[in-house]
């Protein structure tokens, strides 16, 4: 059997009906579980309960509390509805008996119809972007090109991204890969444009995260991820994002609200 890709390895689970268990990777004694990882795993177990042919349409996740690496996460899936065209699932992820994530996910049977998205010229042209290394949270799994001035530990939008290795030609695994990488940029983008990002700026954490999957995602191809700050008050910042392929086609839309205690 062919070796699994890095993301497929992270999505491997033990199953008992609609209950699942995943052992998180060892990442050292410190650090909170990466939100994009737990969201991707939650989408994977939800998809495991859906009939073949229905593909991820959207997800809406709440990060209830931080999780830990090198520990089990238990997932319970509620089958909210199974229709002819759509299926809806509710996923609860828990660690040590405490809920760390709640997600609603919808799946849709592809059907013919209009296909349109607005033209959106790149904010950062690919040739003007500079390679970046050593970003936090599994950044070693991706090739990244950002603004030449970006010297932070984060991925600062706008940036170009692709996986370093091929990912299985499986629409659910690829949607989980998109879910994973979609959490690499929103937290710094949730700051007001007038606030400069610094390592000592304050405490930050993702609160909730939504994705709409518009079109098939090819992880090993270059994509540009553009995020903008939409609001900031009450120590909460809202970022809106769009993921485009190299041809400029809109692949997914993202929103995230982040907590910033400055």
From TrEMBL:
<dbReference type="GO" id="GO:0006637">
    <property type="term" value="P:acyl-CoA metabolic process"/>
</dbReference>
<dbReference type="InterPro" id="IPR049450">
    <property type="entry name" value="ACOT8-like_C"/>
</dbReference>
<dbReference type="GO" id="GO:0009062">
    <property type="term" value="P:fatty acid catabolic process"/>
</dbReference>
<feature type="domain" description="Acyl-CoA thioesterase-like C-terminal">
    <location>
        <begin position="124"/>
        <end position="259"/>
    </location>
</feature>
<protein>
    <submittedName>
        <fullName>Acyl-CoA thioesterase II</fullName>
    </submittedName>
</protein>
<dbReference type="GO" id="GO:0047617">
    <property type="term" value="F:fatty acyl-CoA hydrolase activity"/>
</dbReference>
<feature type="domain" description="Acyl-CoA thioesterase-like N-terminal HotDog">
    <location>
        <begin position="29"/>
        <end position="108"/>
    </location>
</feature>
<dbReference type="InterPro" id="IPR049449">
    <property type="entry name" value="TesB_ACOT8-like_N"/>
</dbReference>
<dbReference type="Pfam" id="PF13622">
    <property type="entry name" value="4HBT_3"/>
</dbReference>
<dbReference type="InterPro" id="IPR042171">
    <property type="entry name" value="Acyl-CoA_hotdog"/>
</dbReference>
<comment type="similarity">
    <text>Belongs to the C/M/P thioester hydrolase family.</text>
</comment>
<dbReference type="Pfam" id="PF20789">
    <property type="entry name" value="4HBT_3C"/>
</dbReference>
<dbReference type="InterPro" id="IPR029069">
    <property type="entry name" value="HotDog_dom_sf"/>
</dbReference>
<dbReference type="InterPro" id="IPR003703">
    <property type="entry name" value="Acyl_CoA_thio"/>
</dbReference>
<keyword id="KW-0378">Hydrolase</keyword>
């Amino acid at each position: 059997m062919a070796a699994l890709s890095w993301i497929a390895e992270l999505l491997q689970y033990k199953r008992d009906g609609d209950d699942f268990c995943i052992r998180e990777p060892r990442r050292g004694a410190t650090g909170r579980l990466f939100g994009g990882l737990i969201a991707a795993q939650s989408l994977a177990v939800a998809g495991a309960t859906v009939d073949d042919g229905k593909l991820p349409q959207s997800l809406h996740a709440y990060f209830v509390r931080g999780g830990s690496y090198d520990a089990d996460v238990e997932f319970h899936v509620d089958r909210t509805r199974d229709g002819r065209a759509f299926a809806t699932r509710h996923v609860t992820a828990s660690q040590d008996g405490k809920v760390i994530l709640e997600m609603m996910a919808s799946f849709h049977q592809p059907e013919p119809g209009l296909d349109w998205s607005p033209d959106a010229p790149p904010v950062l042209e690919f040739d003007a972007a500079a390679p970046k290394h050593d970003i936090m949270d599994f950044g070693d799994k991706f090739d990244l090109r950002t603004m030449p001035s970006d010297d932070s530990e984060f991925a600062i939008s706008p940036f170009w991204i692709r996986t370093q290795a091929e990912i299985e030609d499986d629409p659910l695994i690829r949607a989980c890969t998109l879910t994973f990488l979609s959490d690499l940029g929103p937290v710094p983008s949730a700051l007001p444009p007038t606030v400069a990002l610094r390592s000592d700026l304050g405490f930050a954490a993702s609160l909730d995260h939504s994705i709409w999957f518009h079109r098939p995602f090819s992880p090993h191809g270059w994509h540009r991820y553009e995020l903008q700050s939409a609001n900031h008050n009450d120590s909460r910042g809202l970022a809106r994002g769009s993921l485009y392929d190299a041809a400029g086609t809109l692949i997914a839309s993202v929103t995230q609200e982040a907590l910033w205690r400055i």
